[in-house]
């Protein structure tokens, strides 16, 4: 039976969503094409009808993950978002969590197309972030951007560090607790930018 163009697009979108979650959970190198297609409910042979290479899918799935994060970030208060981001719930669910915290280290060793998807995704996160400025003064746009970058880097870095420790390690929790307290202290009572 011939697949309609609309069904082919829906199938591709489903593969991308599935890949986005699996890559965040296992890393780019931890998921093979056959496993990915099986998880999406398709045969291995169908992969190349949709994608030229695994790197093409990695870039597209990263963009998908960033788009989903930007959508949820745009709907959330910055302090509430960062409080959740620096929690064990987020830390313990990489497949449902942030693309940056799950895959930045992997992306650094991937082709340029994947790095470009990450750069675009990080820019999109910065554009929609509603993190407060970090000081009571009226920062310039450059200062505001610098503060958002610093907050993002601290949150992502804390999550990565915490995930690198054993699950039952007191250090894993301490990293999240210390960074959450620091970030929220800097944000408390300040207007959003």
TrEMBL record:
Domain of life, source organism: Bacteria
Annotated InterPro entries: Homeodomain-like_sf, HTH_TetR, Tet_transcr_reg_TetR-rel_C_sf
Keyword annotations: DNA-binding, Transcription, Transcription regulation
Gene3D superfamilies: Homeodomain-like (1.10.10.60), Tetracycline Repressor, domain 2 (1.10.357.10)
Domain HTH tetR-type: 9-69
Magnesium in keyword set: no
Database matches in SUPFAM superfamilies: Homeodomain-like, Tetracyclin repressor-like, C-terminal domain
Entry's Gene Ontology molecular function annotations: DNA binding
DNA-binding region: 32-51
Pfam families on file: TetR_N
Name this protein carries in UniProt: TetR family transcriptional regulator
Organism: Stenotrophomonas lacuserhaii
Lineage: Bacteria, Pseudomonadati, Pseudomonadota, Gammaproteobacteria, Lysobacterales
């Amino acid at each position: 039976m011939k697949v309609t163009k609309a069904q082919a697009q829906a199938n591709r979108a489903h593969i991308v969503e599935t890949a986005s979650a699996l890559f965040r959970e296992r890393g780019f190198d931890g998921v093979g094409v056959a496993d990915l297609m099986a998880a999406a409910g398709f045969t291995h042979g169908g992969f190349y009808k949709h994608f030229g290479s695994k790197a093409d899918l990695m870039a597209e799935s990263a963009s998908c993950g960033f788009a989903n994060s930007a959508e949820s970030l745009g709907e959330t208060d910055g302090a509430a978002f960062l409080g959740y981001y620096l929690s064990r719930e987020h830390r313990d669910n990489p497949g449902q969590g942030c693309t940056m915290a799950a895959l930045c280290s992997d992306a650094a060793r991937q082709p340029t197309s994947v790095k470009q998807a990450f750069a675009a995704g990080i820019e999109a996160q910065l554009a929609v972030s509603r993190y407060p400025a970090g000081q009571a003064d009226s920062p310039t746009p450059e200062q505001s951007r610098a503060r958002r970058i610093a907050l993002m880097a601290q949150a992502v870095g804390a999550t990565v560090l915490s995930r690198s420790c054993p699950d039952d390690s007191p250090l894993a929790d301490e990293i999240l607790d210390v960074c959450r307290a620091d970030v929220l202290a800097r944000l408390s009572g300040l207007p959003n930018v």
